[in-house]
């Protein structure tokens, strides 16, 4: 219906544009009158891909039924198919903010349950207010016999002390006992962060099925007992049907307070009275629908829609009491929640806004202390969390696609590989190229292209004047055959065993921690020396090897190579092992004709 509405408006716009320019144009009242002019106008109007494709499918089906060819229109590309991955520091900040709001909700529920058992008003003003609200709500529930008293019930029996200056009593009373929309969003987002599921899968958990059970391998008395959370990904209303009914699983320990097992179990217990209320309303609606055999079609359709809506609510985990004192549940449409300033907003947008406000205040202190400022967290939506989860699994598993496949519940390995490439690696490569080009342009503007400085800017950020001075001094130092700079080649330390009174003639730089200075171009020379030592190790007696500290030198060379790119250092070592084994490179101290097969040693 949305696609038809969009295209109806678009057809009206085409006719209006033709009338404005004075061009004759036939009014479209038949699918056979649609032309490429309409598709081009749709492209220019930036119509979304889903609306374009849905309408084209209806048009092509109708045209083929009338004996006409299809339109063969190509759907427009989505403007942004990549999901956003902010830096790790910003992702952690969002996670901590969501966890903080979720824990505050759980703490308030626990505090409310504790205060409901007390007959004495607490001394703490905040607890006293919550105690009065809980006590009054329980009193109204008992007096009226209603699980969820209507606003009129609360208003008629309201106590004078219960009203504040803005007369905002009813919401405070209800949220002292039942979850609000904000509470439901807080718990739901925390679960979404720790499951790696699609938002639609978590939102549509069906409590009529066994979605949360104890792990079948754990003992009932085990303090580290695990849970199994399962969901069917097939959705009758068609929000996401790609998995075709396959189940998705998440396991974890019950004792993890921020895990989905503990959170969903706690939430189900909290909203159990609301679910019973919905079941009663559903039974009444079904009975009324069965008795309306002779009613008008529109009346029966409205009541049928009410029955289906109540059935959805009874199945949903995420029930809450909305601002109109009605039982509601999380859906794709119910995104607006109450916020700290009383204005309706999207939960995640409000969390990011509050987080950026805190970071702005922190930047004022950091700037005074000349510390690095915190960047503002960009726009974040719930769909990004699955990509964040996949990125975490991919990094922690050192790029193992089997881990990603299992964590995301993909049926095929190539699906996990394609998902990682599309949403993580390709985006990362694009961001890296864009960042490097920006740095390169900035360096060209100041009239220099220094590879070492470019590398530092790309990896670590700003180059300080002290670092530039250190780099300039290092480049003026003499270099050994390993391309390692030396602070004082004329006075080598005694354990190097160089010729006395002369400049260093042994150049075993990785034994000279006093004078050696590693440079970006030192990697190849260090790899060369490491393979030379490997060749000597297979020839020298063990006494000589230990006495001359060749073992320590080899260890230091390998440690120094870790400062460089792993793939480049391994490639350099293979190259030097090859040229040494073929005799193209002479190893000092190794007689000719005694070379081992170095390629087998690498």
Provide a descriptive summary of the structure in words:
This protein is mostly helical and 602 residues long. The protein folds into four domains: 2-65; 88-175, no CATH class; 181-334, no CATH class; 479-601, no CATH class. 54% of the residues lie in helices and 5% in strands. It is built from 23 helices and nine strands. The strands form four sheets. The protein has a three-stranded antiparallel β-sheet with strand order 1-2-3, covered by helices on one side. Strands 4-5 form a two-stranded antiparallel ribbon. Strands 6-7 form a two-stranded antiparallel ribbon. Strand 4 (319-321) and strand 5 (327-329) form a beta hairpin. Residues 158-168, 234-241, 338-344 and 597-602 have low confidence and may be disordered.
What does this entry show, briefly?
With 602 residues, this protein is mostly helical. 54% of the residues lie in helices and 5% in strands. It has a three-stranded antiparallel β-sheet with strand order 1-2-3, with helices on one face. Strands 4-5 form a two-stranded antiparallel ribbon. Strands 6-7 form a two-stranded antiparallel sheet.
Tally the beta strands. 9
Overall mean pLDDT stands at 83
> What ranges have pLDDT less than 50 throughout 5 or more consecutive residues?
158-168, 234-241, 338-344, 597-602
Q: Please count the helical segments.
A: 23
Number of domains: 4
> Which band does the percent of strand residues land in?
5-15%
How many angstroms does the end-to-end distance come to? 65 Å
The major pleated sheet works out as:
3 strands, antiparallel
Cα radius of gyration in angstroms: 35 Å
Shape: extended
Helix/strand/pairing class, anyone?
A: mainly alpha
